[in-house]
Structures are given as C-alpha cells and as structure tokens.
Amino acid sequence: MEAITTWPGAVAYVPQDVAIASGTFRENIALGFPPAFATDESIWETLRVAHLDDFVRELEKGIDTEVGERGARVSGGQRQRLGIARALFTKPKLLVLDEATSALDAETEANVAAAIQSLRGSTTVVMIAHRLATVRSADLVVYLDQGRALAMGTFEEVRAQVPDFDHQANLLGL
C-alpha cells in the first residue's frame, strides 16, 4: 500500500477493452491528473509512443478533439492505443498490457511493440498475449496452459520446451 501513496502511477494497466471517458484525447490521456500536468508536449509524446499521433494531428482540434461517448468516434485499435498512451502518461515503472494490442493490425502492432521496446531500462513490461509475434522479442516468455506455467525462458527456449508453441511459431514463420 505504501508504494501506491509514495509512487502514484508507478503501475499502469491496459486491458483489452479500454474504458474511454467522454471528453477529449487530452482529457482521456491525463485522466485523473490536474489539467496543468496535461501539457501539449507530454500528451503528444505519449501519443507518439502509442502510434496515435499521426491520426490525432489530422483532426481539426488535434488533442482537444472529442472522442465521443465511450470512444465512439475512434476505432477499436485507436481505443487500445489511447489506453496505452494513458498508461504511458504516468511514466510507470511497471506496465501491464493485457491483450492490449489485440485490435491492432500487424503493422501498427509492430510499431507499438518497437515503441514499447524503447522503454527497456526504465519500465518493466508484463505483456499478456495470445499472438506469438507480440512476445517474440520479450526478455522472458512464460508459457501458461490452464493456469499453470509449463515453460519459461526466451522465445527460443520456450519453443524448444513446448512442441505446440514451436508448431505455432513455425506456422507463423517466426
């Protein structure tokens, strides 16, 4: 409990289905923070890392564009990236991504994954994913089956330990 009061924002969680509030991109990213913290620079930086900046720049009001009730004016992938931007805004020490890239196309997911890789050394990332490509470059992969850890290691080590994992990786050309 001390960590929560001592380091607010130290842990950030992005679920598969991100909750979006009525309001602007800026308000959704800085949700729970005083408006003074939501500087243009800080908002644009998190949008850049989440690969949502190009889309928002094209909007007439940019970061002050309304996203609509429950994010009605953005796609599922854009909602997920908005959730990632919100999590990154807190500059967490631990970032938990729970299927947080499942609605992204392959190219966008690769771009977001590269951006998340850039957090190495400053943020520990726990990524829960079914897509093998999502965890390909992880430092440590834990293979779970029905709630039990069957294997743990690098991507290649888990491939060597779990025939089904290896088979799926081969099918995907990984």
Q: Which structural traits does this protein have?
A:
174 residues, alpha/beta, Rossmann fold, 2 domains, three-stranded parallel sheet, two-stranded antiparallel sheet, 9 helices, elongated, ATPase-coupled lipid transmembrane transporter activity, ABC_transporter-like_ATP-bd, ATP hydrolysis activity
Overview of the molecule:
The chain is of the alpha/beta class and 174 residues long. It has two domains: 2-128, Rossmann fold, CATH 3.40.50; 140-174, no CATH class. It is built from nine helices and five strands, in the order αβααααβαβαββαα. The protein has a three-stranded parallel sheet, covered by helices on one side. Strands 4-5 form a two-stranded antiparallel ribbon. Helix 3 (40-49) packs across helix 5 and helix 8 (155-161) packs across helix 9 (163-171). The radius of gyration is 17 Å and the shape is elongated. Pfam families: ABC_tran. Residues 1-171 form the ABC transporter domain. GO terms for molecular function: ATP binding; ATP hydrolysis activity; ATPase-coupled lipid transmembrane transporter activity.
Domain unit count: 2
DSSP strand (E) fraction? 5-15%
CATH class of the largest domain: Alpha Beta
What is the average of the pLDDT values?
A: 87
Question: In the CATH classification, which architecture of the largest domain applies?
Answer: 3-Layer(aba) Sandwich
Apparent shape: elongated
Largest sheet features: 3 strands, parallel
Number of separate helices = 9
In total, how many beta strands? Answer: 5
- In which order are the strands of the major sheet placed? 1-2-3
Radius of gyration: 17 Å
Give the CA-CA distance, first to last residue.
Answer: 41 Å
Assembly level: single chain
Percentage of residues assigned to helices: 40-55%
**Strand/helix succession:** HEHHHHEHEHEEHH
Structural class: alpha/beta
